[in-house]
Amino acid sequence: MTHDPHVWSTRMSEENNLDTTEAVEATELGASTEEPTETSTATDLTSEAETEPAAEGDALAAAAAALGDTEEEDAEASYKKRLRDYTRELKKQPGKWYIIQCYSGYENKVKTNLDMRAQTLEVEEFIYDVVVPIEQALEVKDGKRKLVKRKLLPGYVLVRMELNDKAWSVVRDTPGVTSFVGNEGNATPVKHRDVAKFLIPKEPTVDGEGGVANADGEMVIAMPEEDSKSAVKIDFKVGEAVTILTGALASVAATISEIDQVTGKIQALVSIFGRETPVELTVDQIEKIN
């Protein structure tokens, strides 16, 4: 078969032009495809670098909050367990717990007098225990905080006893005692759980030390650590209703009756055994009722 040289040359020129065009298009396509990809990747990396610290900070904050909540829940669970265990221990003891009312400020004297009378009048077999519950709290004085001891139930003394005419008479006639607390003047035993809230020892320390009664028969219930913080601003006012946060009176409502801006003491009235009783508190022990 014979080929026309002119036709063959024309066809080869067209094919070369086509190859050149395809190569140019391929180059342009590659450039248009790769450049946006690199730019997009750089933008994504920059975006991630900007958002990563914020996300990490949020995660740390959430973890810290969760840890705080967990610690509070663990502390509450630990206290409830100790309270249950201590209540069971009280139930194993002979006698029942009663509350005797006395003049405020005479609690220790009443305890001493009652112990002596129980021995002298030979009723020790019926009167087992006489306790003045106290707590140790931080008090601001001269711009410094120090540990002070105060009555947890001012005007009251706890007595564990077998109630009969002889024992009742010894208690009732003790100097400083005004009456038993009960319905219509009758001595009414207190539930073991309620007594446990007032007498539960402080949580044992590393050396195993727990709450013990001192020479005055006072049972130390709380032992906060002393610190060197300065006086705290008292953002409360007389007549304001508050809720007690700590101690045996936790969750109990109170009304502020007096505020000492110098010492940081707050006097409040709470209802204890049907009687309005003054108690001493500090700003970190109460919160406002919304």
TrEMBL record:
Keywords: Transcription, Transcription antitermination, Transcription regulation, Transcription termination. InterPro entries: NGN, NGN-like_dom, NGN_dom_sf, NusG-like, Rib_uL2_dom2, Transcrpt_antiterm_NusG, Transcrpt_antiterm_NusG_bac_CS, Translation_prot_SH3-like_sf. GO terms for biological process: DNA-templated transcription elongation; DNA-templated transcription termination; regulation of DNA-templated transcription elongation; transcription antitermination. Residues 94-202 form the NusG-like N-terminal domain. Residues 1-55 are annotated as: Disordered. Residues 31-43 have a biased composition (Low complexity). PROSITE patterns: NUSG. The keyword Transcription applies. It holds the Pfam family NusG. GO terms for cellular component: cytosol. Belongs to the NusG family. PANTHER family: RHO-INTERACTING TRANSCRIPTION TERMINATION FACTOR NUSG, TRANSCRIPTION TERMINATION_ANTITERMINATION PROTEIN NUSG. Participates in transcription elongation, termination and antitermination. This is Transcription termination/antitermination protein NusG.
